[in-house]
Write a structure and sequence with these properties.
The complex is a heterodimer.
Chain A lengths: L2 E11 L5 E11 L3 E5 L6 H9 L6 E6 L2 E2 L4 H5 L2 E4 L11 H11 L6 H10 L15 H13 L5 E5 L7 H16 L3 E6 L2 H7 L2 E6 L2 E7 H8 L1 E8 L15 E3 L5 E7 L7 H10 L4 E8 L2 H10 L3
Parallel strand pairs in A: 3-8, 3-9, 6-7, 7-8
Antiparallel strand pairs in A: 1-2, 1-4, 4-5, 9-10, 11-13, 11-14, 12-13
Helix pairs in contact in A: 3-5
Chain B lengths: L2 H17 L1 H23 L11 H32 L2 H5 L5 H28 L9 H25 L3 H17 L12 H7 L3 H14 L6 H25 L6
The chains are: A alpha/beta, B mainly alpha.
């Protein structure tokens, strides 16, 4: 894998003193889908804005395809397409005209065939002569994506692409994202919807208070940070956990009907067999067994809420 | 150089004019016709010729300047203010385009529109008076320099303004009085001595005077000084724009 975007020691402090990014280091691989998770105001949009040239970094460097974003801004920006969070469109422009404008801005000569295909792929072709103000919110979101793709970028930033979007369009959007990834486009998206990151991303980064708390392969992340619990339902309630089982990470439910065993999914030896044998030896009968696994949602909540 | 980007910005801005074509052309034609009826015919017929030029003819350069200055400022300021206001400016700011190219697109289009309006006024005037242009090349040069420098000023105002009120305030409270008091409808020599001195601090006086000289070799100040002042004004505006872009003023955080 080659690194396409490299962020080193990136800091951004706004004029008012708000520190939006603190020493962020991140390498983004070519062709991957990276999801950036974080609560509102975590610094996700600032990070994207710095890479795209909308916000000046206070310190640190960013390179895109080996080019510095400030010194070689023409080379870096021409590789990037940006879909902003807000539906910022000029109300009186027509769909086709606004696409031609975007393509030209990025220095590309007109290519009607490409733009036609793009509009068809985004189900916008029959709206090409409509003024943007006549389109629904979902359609405008599609137009923003079309604008970002109008100059055939190899990196696409999607800032909260599914905020306020209905289920149908959201599914459509992920189909488009998958198709783009298949064609080799690197995609960086921010989202509040953790289940989306879980479904679509290759890697997940978690940002909070301007710090990148972690970046990891999604599967690894879920395996490493995901805890599993075995819930043992007892036939008869007990008052205390027997001393012979004190070495296990056990919790007793308030009514004494359930024993909850938390274990590491990574280890080869989870200790379940030994625990069950110990239960048997202690003369405790079981009614039922249940396991639960923490989702990305739990991992995320644990991370951003952890005392720091 | 990103020629495509300059082209699309220029075309976009010109199209905006095209959409309001009637208003863009009808308004200068109508106001010029009204000025000619009021000042040229009604009042002008009772005024003696000024410096050997009939009053109707005398006001033509001033009338052109009046429209060009106000139109350049309002067009260029609106052109950049509106995308900033709606947020669509993000696209221009994230494109591989230099600040000079952005300027070329926006200011170039605003200046072109002013040039067109100036030409329309000149044509309209020709229906009311018998036109005389002694130095057409100087006339064109003054016209172009004025269009460009005041479009630059408009661009600065558009960048500076963060609400509609500020956008209106400068053209209304500064440009219009300066134009009216800059010898648009009179020769400065008609004023009492004190006001003549005060008027010398009005940059518009030099524009109108130089422009009028290119028509009938009649001027309040030397044409060389007029040229010098407009070049200085152009340089100051360019300097301010350069600083604004360099610091990302009101565009980049």
């Amino acid at each position: 894998m080659t690194t396409i975007i490299s962020i080193a020691n990136l800091c951004k402090t706004y004029e008012g003193g708000h520190q939006a990014l603190k020493q962020v280091n991140l390498d983004i691989e070519e062709g991957e889908i990276l999801a950036l998770l974080g609560p509102n105001g975590a610094g996700k949009t600032t990070m994207i804005s710095v890479i795209c040239g909308l916000v000046s970094p206070t310190s640190g460097t960013v390179t895109v395809g080996g080019f510095d974003i400030i010194e070689n801004y023409r080379q870096t920006r021409s590789q990037i397409g940006l879909v902003p969070q807000e539906l910022t469109l000029a109300a009186f422009d027509r769909v086709w005209d606004t696409l031609c404008f975007s393509r030209g801005l990025f220095g590309k000569k007109p290519d009607d065939a490409y733009l036609e295909q793009l509009l068809k792929d985004l189900s916008l072709w029959d709206k090409r002569n409509n003024e943007l103000r006549t389109l629904s919110g979902g359609m405008r979101r599609r137009v923003l994506i079309a604008k970002a793709l109008s100059h055939q970028p190899n990196i696409l930033f999607l800032d909260e692409p599914t905020a306020g979007v209905d289920v149908e369009l959201r599914k459509d959007m992920w189909r488009i994202v998958n198709r783009l990834r298949d064609s080799g486009v690197t995609i960086i998206l921010t989202t509040h919807y953790i289940e989306e990151a879980e479904q679509i991303a290759d890697r997940v980064g978690v940002i909070n208070h301007g710090e990148l708390l972690l970046v990891d392969d999604k599967v690894n992340l879920m395996r490493e940070l995901g805890r599993k619990q075995l819930i043992i339902e007892l036939k008869e309630p007990i008052n205390n956990i027997p001393e012979s089982m004190a070495s296990y990470a056990l919790e007793l439910s308030a009514d004494g009907h359930e024993l909850i065993f938390t274990y590491d999914t990574q280890g080869n030896n989870t200790g379940i067999t030994a625990l069950l044998q110990a239960l048997h030896s202690a003369g405790i009968s079981m009614k039922d067994l249940n396991t639960t696994q923490s989702s990305l949602q739990d991992i995320f909540v644990n991370l951003v809420q952890a005392p720091r | 150089m990103n020629i495509q980007a300059v082209k699309v910005i220029y075309k976009y801005e010109m199209l905006r004019t095209w959409h309001t074509l009637f208003q863009s052309i009808a308004s200068p034609v109508l106001s010029t016709a009204l000025y000619f009826i009021v000042f040229g015919s009604a009042i002008g017929s009772r005024i003696q010729s000024v410096d050997g030029v009939t009053y109707g003819l005398f006001i033509v350069p001033g009338l052109m300047m009046l429209s060009i200055l106000t139109q350049s400022v309002s067009n260029a300021s609106f052109g950049i203010f509106f995308p900033k206001f709606t947020g669509t400016v993000y696209e221009v700011m994230s494109a591989p385009i230099s600040f000079f190219e952005i300027l070329l697109g926006y200011v170039g289009a605003a200046a072109t529109k002013s040039l067109i309006i100036g030409t329309i006024i000149l044509i309209t005037a020709s229906f009311f008076v018998e036109l005389r242009i002694d130095h057409p090349i100087w006339m064109a040069m003054f016209l172009i320099l004025t269009c460009v420098s005041f479009s630059l000023l408009g661009f600065i105002i558009g960048l500076w303004a963060n609400n509609f009120e500020k956008l209106q305030v400068v053209p209304l409270l500064i440009i219009t009085p300066l134009v009216f008091l800059g010898g648009t409808f009179y020769s400065v020599s008609m004023l009492p001595p004190l006001w003549q001195t005060i008027t010398l601090f009005n940059p518009v006086l030099y524009l109108v005077s130089g422009f009028r000289w290119s028509f009938f070799e009649v001027s309040d100040v030397n044409v060389g000084i007029s040229l010098g002042v407009i070049l200085l004004f152009l340089a100051i505006c360019s300097g301010i724009v350069w600083w604004m872009f360099k610091t990302g003023y009101r565009l980049k955080q």
